[in-house]
Fold:
Amino acid sequence: MTARRSSIERKTKETDIRLDMDLDGEGNGSISTGVPFLTHMLDLFTKHGHFDVTIDADGDTDVDDHHTTEDIGICLGHVFQEALGDKKGIHRYGQAMVPMDDALAQVVVDLSNRPHLEYRAELPAASIGTFDTELVHEFLWKFALEARINLHVIVHYGHNTHHIVEAVFKALGRALDEAAQLDDRVKGVPSTKGML
Structure:
């Protein structure tokens, strides 16, 4: 099987990011973002998606966490899309529902080459530690845009914001893993259009 792996180095005046992703990994992560809560969420994403991910990011977190979070979403989406290659033989669709104590999150994806984010999540708290929870949407939107996927995030319920976001990131990893899986029954690209 051809390796489904991609890397990116992206440097701006706000961030300096090196990121590597292997879709057919074992859930191993070496992740340093400079944003502790985001690092925690990406560790969960990696483990539950069975991806191998390395991230080394340095950003202007003295300003706030926005640029670093956004740019990691951009880079992760880019390498995910690139690692998929021609998309021949993939499932294309994936979904996962993940409980985390009081919270239940659902993520549904289509690796369609048509980027869209549908975000149905009410987060009770404006921050988790020093992390602004509005950045969850920012990360997911930039990831969906660069990965060129249709991404639906639905939080059914929950009152602890940490638990809600954790369930979302775990479900995201699991849904993407399902969608990216290769299936011997799928001949070519799974689309009547003949391309994705």
User: Anything to note?
Assistant: The chain has a mean pLDDT of 96. DSSP finds four helices and ten strands in the chain.
